Amino acid sequence: xxxxxxxxxxxxxxxxxxxxxxxxxxxxxxxxxxxxxxxxxxxxxxxxxxxxxxxxxxxxxxxxxxxxxxxxxxxxxxxxxxxxxxxxxxxxxxxxxxxxxxxxxxxxxxxxxxxxxxxxxxxxxxxxxxxxxxxxxxxxxxxxxxxxxxxxxxxxxxxxxxxxxxxxxxxxxxxxxxxxxxxxxxxxxxxxxxxxxxxxxxxxxxxxxxxxxxxxxxxxxxxxxxxxxxxxxxxxxxxxxxxxxxxxxxxxxxxxxxxxxxxxxxxxxxxxxxxxxxxxxxxxxxxxxxxxxxxxxxxxxxxxxxxxxxxxxxxxxxxxxxxxxxxxxxxxxxxxxxxxxxxxxxxxxxxxxxxxxxxxxxxxxxxxxxxxxxxxxxxxxxxxxxxxxxxxxxxxxxxxxxxxxxxxxxxxxxxxxxxxxxxxxxxxxxxxxxxxxxxxxxxxxxxxxxxxxxxxxxxxxxxxxxxxxxxxxxxxxxxxxxxxx
Length: 485
Description:
Blueprint: E1 6-16, E2 22-32, E3 36-41, H1 47-55, E4 62-67, E5 73-76, H2 89-94, H3 104-114, H4 130-142, E6 148-152, H5 160-172, E7 176-180, H6 184-188, E8 193-197, E9 204-208, H7 211-246, H8 252-269, E10 296-305, E11 308-318, E12 323-327, H9 334-342, E13 349-351, E14 357-360, H10 373-378, H11 386-395, H12 412-426, E15 430-434, H13 445-454, E16 458-462, H14 466-469, E17 476-479
Parallel strand pairs: 3-7, 3-8, 5-6, 6-7, 12-16, 12-17, 14-15, 15-16
Antiparallel strand pairs: 1-2, 1-4, 8-9, 10-11, 10-13
Helix pairs in contact: 3-4, 7-8, 11-12
């Protein structure tokens, strides 16, 4: 590749948060102008860390990161920073510029058009739904028109229409895009290759082809490497057995044993470092105590249309074992309904007295970010039990150092797994899940879906993941989008 059209190049980059925890070890790769690549890797491989190295938020321990002269960078983050939640939409976008342009409203309008979103610029960001905030995060990066656009799980919270609109924009975008996502259909539609970060070696490998093809290529390579190692191990064991036999003999037999030892060393040298895939969480159940009365009474819901709330009569009396799916486009009031219900702030959406509630909030704001993972798990139990806490944490890959880590320092995926570990310990009568697939590694989703499907308490869920929803039994559905028609 000609260096003249390379916009980004990593040269022998070494980085680790500690000496024992090396994320990258002499990482080398380059990306040309207008290329579109997926970042792929196991949990903890350093995908978000790589973005931070590109933006300069982090500095490499060794090596160099080169950019094309004058190249600009913008990142669409996973979650709205808390300091922006109290700002107006206009104030939020003004932070994208060192000096606010005179035509800021026109630039905002153009960026929001890209993400298919209309909103009053004086609206407070924190009053918007998760899906609407996701659109703002994307538009915030787009408004800067960067040479390198970094997208971290951009389809989280987006409905199908929003994903389709984003896809068209990215296909037409004439500059470089690097994206972290587990949405295969989305990735296949516009990316041309994969940068694979290996959590165990700290290396980065570059593959050409769409996401699905690369995943299959990597899986096939893993199987070839395992087969090669199996044959080498068989050879090594055979030689060792013969060495043990001949080593006690004299003369030529002893020389043969020495030669066999050399063959063992050569075979061990040729062993392939097989890539290890992510661990998957263990199957789990969320127990629900018997509750004979009505768990939730939904008699009125608020539907948002044209930025106005309309109260609509409904009739849903939910008991134990009843699963309700709430649907509708972004911004219509789904998250607001769940939030008001969980907080018991709306008489039209009431939880019966004595009901224990487990609430998965899509932005994890229900978690106390200052307490440790261990304390967060213990806080949902009537009486904290060390053995139960550690057992639950281990099931969700949160053992060891993660237990002593502040919740705020966990990755978004770990916060999601922590939420489900808390449910296991809490044993709620009512489980409210607002986009429970957000940030979760795709390997874990079938196990989580089965646990929710088998859950015998009352379940109310919002999710834009059709594949996930199809794996769960729902007794009824509430489509907010059709209530005003």
